[in-house]
Structure formats: structure tokens, C-alpha cells
Specification:
The complex is a heterodimer.
Chain A: H1 2-14, H2 16-41, H3 45-65, H4 69-90, H5 95-116, H6 124-129, H7 137-156, H8 158-166, H9 168-173, H10 178-196, H11 202-219, H12 223-248, H13 252-270, H14 276-287
Helix pairs in contact in A: 1-2, 2-7, 2-10, 2-11, 2-12, 3-4, 3-5, 3-10, 3-11, 4-5, 4-10, 7-10, 11-12, 11-13, 12-13
Chain B: E1 6-16, E2 19-30, E3 34-38, H1 45-52, E4 59-64, E5 76-79, H2 93-98, H3 113-125, H4 141-154, E6 159-163, H5 171-186, E7 190-194, H6 201-204, E8 207-212, E9 214-220, H7 221-224, H8 227-234, E10 238-243, E11 245-250
Parallel strand pairs in B: 3-7, 3-8, 5-6, 6-7
Antiparallel strand pairs in B: 1-2, 1-4, 8-9, 10-11
Classes of the chains: A mainly alpha, B alpha/beta.
Chain lengths: 288, 252
């Protein structure tokens, strides 16, 4: 193991593309972890999955037009969130069904466009599953920009975000623009998805949004601590995932998500307060 | 007629996908009173409260001391039904109480020492200061309700809206809360309480709004709380017993 870590560090020093990959992975770990906390506590895991998939046609159109795919992704991501809200408010179709309809429609549109445009440089496999080693300097700058923007928004609007997540009715009653906050969060979610596109890919982004957040959720009782722990868990998953990906030559997205899942399992079984095993021992002590 | 010290609701109606939840409700309430909103299940009590707060698409008008709800937002404290809250949420008692200050803190500032002192004082008033570091799910129902009352207190509001505050809580908490509400009302605050337990109606409230989608009657407690009104509101679910004083028994 030590040898492999040394080998990884050695390669890291030697190859700039690996350095880019590492920085991208760290950034993605942080922003997915932070936004993921809101997704979990608002019960929007399906929404997270939806927005990440719905980004696909935007990315493809942007490629076709030669525009930045960040813009394309944000447009289709937010558009999907708006349509889901519109369908839910104006029909008796429940939100989860509206989400299911809209994101599969958008995702299918993306796939149709890619397959119809064979011969272009759009690589479906890389968009779907990520290819962290292809992160360029320019991509890295954009990811950094998105990361700073997302973190800044969460810090600046920490209180409105917390209140509208915890007690929506009071938030509305006290005059917070709750619906605007929701769409703002969807915008951030689209940005985070695009930033994670190359690291973990569209399909697995939802894992980076939910798993580190859920791990942190089991470990703390304070929201601010949960945000930090979730970001830390995200970074640990991303960096060690990248390590396994390089050493064993497996898909970076898959490796990162697997590490995150193992961390979640550890918290699930061993978390001091919530863990299955400590809880079992407490109940045994109580009954004896 | 246009007394500014009143809260006026005029022809308030709410429809959900073509179903009427609230029909042409009009009443007025005096400043500084504790108002019980009562009626059977599905009578639209919560809907009335939400419509008054402008949280529900409605027709009709609501004015607070001559002003629309929009200009009163910071002045309205709302306490949700306990069942609306996710009690596993990672917040501590002190965090929840501090939320009552959120609308007063400018977005670019942190909560000041003054805000925190206000929150601590409110916690003392509800007798929960020793629990300030607990996660909210670790408390009993009555304690949770007291924490939310403390949050409303820190807000320094003039209007209070409480949705079923006495459901599933212990006698001690109920007593602490009702005493606090009484002292708030003596300071001139107006308090709306959605309530389902008819036995304490006369003890707790100054005015009543009796509701079953339409307004049955609103006004002073002794005017509204009559067996004929209760029977009209609760329809088949009532029986009248006459033992000295007339009493109405209502099936839950």
C-alpha cells in the first residue's frame, strides 16, 4: 500500500494532467458535499438525480455551437427545474412523477442528439461516466470559478437557506422568497453537476451529492458542522478514488463513488450516536 | 367601522383544484386578544391561517391594523404544527430559537451578541435554557413546542399565529405556554391559535372563530361558544347533554 501511495505521489509530481485531475477532484468533493447537504435535508435526492441528467442536452447543444458547455448545462438544468415546478403546480401530477417525466425526457433528448451527430467530438461515454484525466487547465479554472461562486452563495445566504430548508412555512410567513431560493438552489445544482461532469460523470454525480452528505448527517447534530463534514468526506472520497483509479486503472467516477459508499457504510454502522452497532450495544446495556 | 386596532378578514375564499376549502369567511378581531380558531377536522382552520398570512392563493382581503400582510411580515411570528417539522434535522435548540432573529439581521451580517442574548432570554421564559445544546429531536413533544414558542418570542412580533400548539404535549408545557400567551396579550399582542380541544376553549380564549369551511360564528367567546353553534359546526358528530349547564359532546 505504502509503495502504491509513493508511486501515486511520484506520478502526481511528474504529470501535470494528474495534478489537474487531483485539483478538480478536490473541488468537486467540496461543492458536491456542500450542495448535497441541502439536497438531503430538503428530501430532494430524486431532484438532484434529475437535474444532473437533464444537463446532458445542454452540454451537447453547447458542443455543437462551440459555446461553453457550462452555459448550456445551466440553461437546460434550470429549465428542467422550472418545468417540474410548473407541472406540479398546474396539474394533479405529483412532484416525483413530474421529476421522472422531465428528466428522462431531457436525458433522452441528449442521447438522441449525440447519437444523431455521430462523428462529432462529443464522447458520450466520457460525459456519462467522467474522465478525470482529461481535465484541462481551462476546465480547472472554470471548475474553480464555479466552486468559489457556490461556496460564496451558501455562506452569504446561509440563514435564508437554513430557514427555508428547516421550516418552509415560517420562512414564507416571514417574507423569504422561498420559491426563488428553490430555483437558486437548482441553479447551483446545475453548476455543480457541470463542474463534476469530467470527474464523476452525469450518471454518478448524484452519488457525490447524496452519499457524503448522508455520511455527515449521521455524524453530527449541527447544520454548519454537517456542511463541513460533508465537504471533507467528499474530498476524501474524491482524492482516494482518484488514487485507486490511477493505481488499478479503473474508471475514476466509479472509484470515487465506491470510496464514498464505503465511508457511508462506516458511518452507518459505527457512528457514535446513530450507528447500528453503538446503538445495539447501548440497547444491550439498557436491558441488562 | 374602520378602527385601525383590528384585524379584518373580508370574503376570504380558498379553492384547491376546484374544491372549496374556505368559503367567504369574514370576521374582525380586536388587537390584544387571544383568538381561538376552532372547527372539525377538514374545516379549513390551517387554510384560513395560511390564507391570512398570504401563503395560500385566495380571494378576498385581509388587513392587519389597516395594512396588508406584505408590510407586516417581520411583525408576524408563526409556529407550525409539530407534525410539519423534521425532528431529525441537524439543529440544536439554540439554533432554532435564533431563527426568530433571522428577519431582523441584515443578510451581510452575522448574528450579534444581542440577538443571541434575546434568544437565550426567550429560552429562559419557556423554561428550556438547560436544553439549549440539545438536538431538537431529543426533546419531548411539550419541550419541542416550547422551543418553537421561544423562537416566536425572540422575533419581537405583534402578531402570533400558532397551529395546534397544544396537540400531544404535557400539562406543564401547556401551562407555561398559555401563561406566556396571556402575558403577550396583556402587552397588546394579538394571538391566533388553531385549537381542537373544545373543553378548554372558554378558559383559554378571548375571542373565537368557529369554522366549517364557511364561518359559523365569530366574536366574543360567550357569544360564539353555544351548543347550537357547535352543533352547526360539527354537524352529526355531536350530542347535547343537559346537566345544569348545557354541554355539547363532540366526537373527535
Amino acid at each position: 500500500m505504502i509503495d502504491q501511495i509513493l508511486l501515486f505521489i511520484d506520478q502526481l509530481i511528474r504529470y501535470p494532467y494528474l495534478q489537474n485531475a487531483l485539483f478538480a477532484a478536490i473541488l468537486v468533493g467540496v461543492i458536491c458535499g456542500v450542495i448535497g447537504c441541502f439536497i438531503i435535508l430538503r428530501g430532494m435526492a430524486l431532484m438532484g438525480d434529475a437535474i444532473s441528467h437533464a444537463v446532458l442536452p445542454g452540454v451537447v447543444i453547447a458542443y455543437m455551437l462551440g459555446a461553453s458547455f457550462f452555459i448550456g448545462a445551466v440553461i437546460t438544468g434550470v429549465l428542467t427545474a422550472l418545468s417540474i415546478g410548473y407541472i406540479t403546480r398546474n396539474s394533479k401530477v405529483k412532484e416525483d412523477s413530474a421529476i421522472g417525466i422531465m428528466f428522462t425526457a431531457m436525458f433522452a433528448l441528449g442521447i438522441a442528439m449525440i447519437t444523431g451527430l455521430q462523428g462529432t467530438s462529443v464522447d458520450l461515454w466520457h460525459i456519462l461516466f467522467g474522465n478525470v484525466l482529461a481535465v484541462s487547465r481551462a476546465d480547472l479554472w472554470i471548475t474553480l470559478g464555479i466552486g468559489i461562486f457556490v461556496i460564496l452563495m451558501v455562506i452569504l445566504f446561509y440563514r435564508p437557506l437554513l430557514l427555508s430548508t428547516f421550516d418552509e412555512t415560517m420562512a414564507k410567513a416571514s417574507g423569504l422568497p422561498v420559491r426563488f431560493i428553490h430555483y437558486m438552489l437548482m441553479l447551483l445544482l446545475s453548476l455543480v453537476t457541470v463542474a463534476s461532469l469530467q470527474t464523476v460523470g452525469i450518471i454518478l454525480v448524484v452519488a457525490m451529492l447524496i452519499t457524503p452528505g448522508a455520511t455527515a448527517y449521521l455524524l453530527t447534530e449541527r447544520f454548519s458542522v454537517m456542511l463541513v463534514l460533508s465537504a471533507v468526506t467528499g474530498v476524501i472520497s474524491a482524492v482516494s478514488g482518484l488514487f485507486f483509479s490511477v493505481i488499478y486503472d479503473i474508471s475514476s467516477g466509479a472509484a470515487i463513488v465506491l470510496v464514498a459508499s464505503v465511508l457511508f457504510a462506516a458511518a452507518f454502522f459505527f457512528s457514535p450516536k446513530q450507528g447500528i452497532i453503538p446503538r445495539y450495544f447501548r440497547s444491550v446495556q439498557h436491558s441488562s | 367601522m374602520n378602527n385601525p386596532g383590528t384585524i379584518k378578514v373580508k370574503n376570504l375564499s380558498v379553492n384547491y383544484h376546484g374544491n372549496t376549502a374556505l368559503k367567504n369567511v369574514s370576521f374582525s378581531v380586536d388587537e390584544g386578544s387571544i383568538v381561538g380558531v376552532i372547527g372539525p377536522n377538514g374545516a379549513g382552520k390551517s387554510t384560513l391561517m395560511k390564507a391570512m398570512l398570504g401563503l395560500e392563493r385566495s380571494s378576498g382581503s385581509v388587513s392587519f391594523f389597516g395594512k396588508p400582510v406584505k408590510s407586516m411580515r417581520k411583525n408576524i411570528a408563526y409556529v407550525p404544527q409539530r407534525s410539519m417539522i423534521d425532528w431529525d434535522f441537524p439543529v440544536r435548540v439554540e439554533d432554532v430559537v435564533l431563527m426568530g432573529r433571522y428577519m431582523h439581521i441584515p443578510w451581510y451580517k452575522l448574528a450579534s451578541r444581542k440577538d443571541k442574548a434575546k434568544a437565550a432570554e426567550a429560552l429562559r421564559k419557556v423554561g428550556m435554557e438547560e436544553f439549549s445544546g440539545r438536538q431538537i429531536g431529543e426533546l419531548s413533544g411539550g419541550q419541542q413546542q416550547r422551543v418553537f414558542i421561544a423562537r416566536a418570542l425572540t422575533q419581537n412580533a405583534d402578531l402570533f399565529f400558532l397551529d395546534e400548539p397544544f396537540v400531544g404535549i404535557d400539562v406543564k408545557s401547556e401551562e407555561i405556554i398559555i401563561n406566556l400567551l396571556r402575558s403577550l396579550s396583556s402587552e397588546g399582542k394579538t394571538i391566533f391559535v388553531i385549537h381542537h380541544d373544545l373543553s378548554k376553549v372558554e378558559k383559554y380564549f378571548d375571542q373565537l372563530v368557529l369554522l366549517n369551511q364557511e364561518l359559523i360564528h365569530a366574536g366574543k367567546v360567550d357569544e360564539v361558544y353555544s351548543s347550537s353553534n357547535i352543533q352547526r359546526a360539527y354537524k352529526g358528530n355531536t350530542a347535547v347533554i343537559k346537566e345544569g349547564k348545557e354541554m355539547v359532546v363532540v366526537n373527535p
